[in-house]
Queue: 4 jobs
Job 1
Amino acid sequence: MIKFEHVGLRYGVGPEVLSDINFTLEPGTFHFLSGPSGSGKTSLMSMLYLGRQPTRGLMSMFGKNVGQLNRQELKKLRQRIGVVFQDFRLLNHMSAFDNIALPLRISGQPEKEIRANVEELMEWVGLGDHRHMLPNTMSGGQQQRIAVARAVITRPKLLLADEPTGNLDDEIGLRLMNLFDQLNRMGTTVVIASHNTVLMQKFSQHDRIILDDGQAYLEKPQQTIKQRLGSMF
């Protein structure tokens, strides 16, 4: 699904923010991405959703060398990825329903199927009574749930979420985590960036990628010793 070989990333002429990253994520796996502020989580996530190219090394996704793809080929890859951005990136001129339905409409699904799928998911995330509201009239937690629903509505092959439960109460946060878990059991590869150690402990069966000072480490369930992500993958 994803392979990084000696990947580095820098902004401009500054020092590398990520250095010599090596890992492979197999299809259908679930990883938490954690680390202190400034460790490079956002930078790594931006590469994973193809928003930024590494400045060195090899990055492969879905069996393709990302550095060799043209804009149209990158666009096709992005259609297989669902992303929950930390700043939501909702379209404020569109209703909550239409924001969630947008990926399905872009893919050309029949409107009858779109309506059924979106209404079911809105009920699941607790927004069934907010179909016609505009995002900028809703709370931060409600906007976050719209962003999550939009990311998962297409059942993507890869789901990336940056602090997806940050503005939510424990009950809704747990419900969304169960939704991610269910998608993972159906075959979606999931990567969630989070500072929430309590949440990660509740789902401790999943691996963790830990970033520290631009380096990446793997922590297996029930394992206390960090292993450097490298050739053992």
Note: The longest helix spans residues 170-185.
Job 2
Amino acid sequence: MNSLFKKAIAEGIGTFVLVFVACGVAALTGGSLVATSLAFGLSIVAMAYSIGRVSGCHVNPAVSLGCLLTKRMSGKEFLVYVISQLIGGTAGALVLFGIFEKTYITIGGNACNYAVGFSENGLIPGGIVGALIVEAVLTCIFVYTILNVTDEKAGTGKIAGIVIGLTLTLVHLVGIGLTGTSVNPARSIATALADLIYKGRTEAVLQVWMFVAAPLVGAAVAAFFYKVLNTEKG
């Protein structure tokens, strides 16, 4: 089997698991801060030690962008990864929301990634701008950590998956009360589409652009800092 095709399948599976499990926990627990944060982090740990050796376990277009900008993957690989992540994530969301629809479980919490920052709660000063900044900063932290712990020179190969999972947990602990936390365009697009299809709600779809743009900007900034700080000068 073609190596890139294997990576594509792995990325699709990994993103499916992330969305199905983590967003499922978010919905079932009403967006519990600790439970949801741990669900996202542990999903990444599980996938890192299963599909990681196949594709690197990006399961996130922002992570893939960071790898592209640091020349760890080609443009072709990047496109294949992103398409696979979107397909896998959307499949996970459709299955999850479909199960909830059949069992009459209410989708709650931040499963759909609504940005509470500029809604009636008004938690983020600056509204949309504040939400964009939060998502960009959190993604930058996440991707910057990934780029460093997966660097061959770091010597953290065996524990990289744990560090990455804990970092994702950390950014969710910070961001859930602000934006619901995305830091992953595939996860946000997937649940927004599922919410529209099953519930006919448009809130998530109308807001999803933020959860695509901000994480990609954050990933680009992370790649910039990584290249500046990790470049050795003779």
Note: Residues 3-230 form a domain with the Glycerol uptake facilitator protein fold (CATH 1.20.1080.10).
Job 3
Amino acid sequence: MEVIRNYLESMFANLPNTEEVQRAKSELGQMMEDKYTELIGEGHTDNEAVGIVISDFGNLDELADTLGIRGAMQERPQIQGRLLSSEEVRDYVKDDERTTFSNSIGVMLCIFLPIPFIAAECAVEGFGLGERGPLALAIILFFVMLAAAIALFVLNGFKMEKWKYLKREPVCIDYATTEYLQTQYDADRSGHAVMKVIGILLCVFCFVPVAVIGSLTDNDVPAMFGVIVLFLCVGIGVMMLINAGAKEDAYKTLLQLNSASTVSGNYVRSQTEIRYTNETVEKVMEVYNPIILCVYLCWSFLTFDWHITWIIWPIAAVVRHLINSIWGEKGGQNR
């Protein structure tokens, strides 16, 4: 029966997503199911029953008048493009996840760049070492981490170059692949949520070591250790936030390949997410959360008013709601 269901979806995939077409699909699906059940009851094997059902009901042109969708058939848009295979879909998800993880390591290394110099100052102040040795080591570590981060960014950019056609060329996915992606997307959401919460907590409370150490002693060396811990918390937190959205973004990209104006573009819930009527607004909203996080961290680090800077999050939520109300609309990509 699963084969019949997938075949039914492929028959209607490129028809307009209207009530008329959805009703016709439901009627034909019921007819195919009844015929399949009848054949199984007569003693046919599953493969035989599937073959007969598809043979009897598999030509939509012949059934268009009976189902009342002749007009929709004539208005049928052009094929959405090349059909992605399940292997390509899985390869894209894996590549996107791996490159996102590597990029998050690169971002973390960039955040860690001040640590060698702070550690060198701790060594000089706390252990009475000469300045030249620790400073030279700090400079070496600084450039090693910077070079590693840049190398990761460049290599990952080259690795994902082969997938840019997903956003440039008309491609689509079938019903079975869509179901697989939606299932994986739903299964991973709880894990992503946990990672996001931990990442946010690390960023929000990264100042605690500095505040606690500062309240316990006036010595600069312990305070500098606290600053090192602060950068470690922020780096790890940002890395977790980036990784939390890795697979999620890959799934959303693939699930929104099919045009929302067709039946195949409405297989999944993700196709009802907010899209924007203004192209500039859409580009801004793609990086909205990272921008807010960057503003929050910069403001917090420059002022150390952590008890005040949290207010940016509820403000950002209100602004997002207003933008969605003015420029947002439900639906997937139109091609």
Note: DSSP finds 17 helices and four strands in the chain.
Job 4
Amino acid sequence: MAKALIVGSVALDTIETPHGTAERILGGSASFGSYAASYFTDVSIVGVVGEDFPPEAIDQFKARGIGVEGLEVREGKTFHWSGRYEYDMNEAHTKATELNVFADFRPKLTAEQRKTPYVFLANIHPQLQLDVLEQMEAPKLVAVDTMNFWIEGFKKELTGVIERCDFLLMNDGEARQFCEKPNLIECGRELRRLGPSTVAIKKGEHGALLFHNGGISFFPSYPVMELKDPTGAGDTFAGALIGYLARKDDTGADNLVRAVQAGTCMASFVVEDFSLTRVANLGPGELRERVAMLREMVRLPEPDEAALESRLASGVL
């Protein structure tokens, strides 16, 4: 089992959905990613918070065995994001973004963190992602996430990050925006040509496309009956994926597919409640059960080739 490192934002979120409102709850890409990864392997978090960050949140990280030596506490206030969702939970409407101490965040890795083999650079400024890469010592796999803001304003820097990563994650809108193409298959192939051996294009509730050395794979999302808050679903997906790969210490095509299945199912838990509440209370065997159900959902029976050939020969098909 290898270790994982998660670098990103640690935040206090205020979120409004059709199911209620939660104020100043634990959020941020590194929070969701590291918590998900901790179910599979030893993981450390790198981020910054202010003096207002609740000590019990740090205790929550520690309780999951997450290394917090890279979580800097500085004078000032913690990054705060406020947003709302309507009944279309695929789109967040930002009400306020207060960077606070996160505005001057400069990741500084310890000597041990520099040697971590599996790294997830969550959604932060591309230049900061590059700064982390400069500090790393030959990682086995680097996964990178981004957002439309960086694509629009810092595409050159982001391209430099993509060229140096192994696993790129984008949602469908971001992939189209970056590649300036409407077709996601073209986008996935173009992004791979930049350098990553694997590209995951996330489609929210409609699943994900995975472009890798073994070809193209499609994964549906796990059907969730109780969707309360989708915040952090993508970061949870990525964190679980990285954690799974680190646990197996295997980046082969078959294991990548298994890792995506694990990430998909872990993300299905986090959306069932606000913040990390649902993921923090997983029961024994719950994740394994959902992975098995997801695999059953996508299982296809073998075609009756004789019947198909007969129809083709008769000119019906």
Note: The chain is about 35% helix and 25% strand.
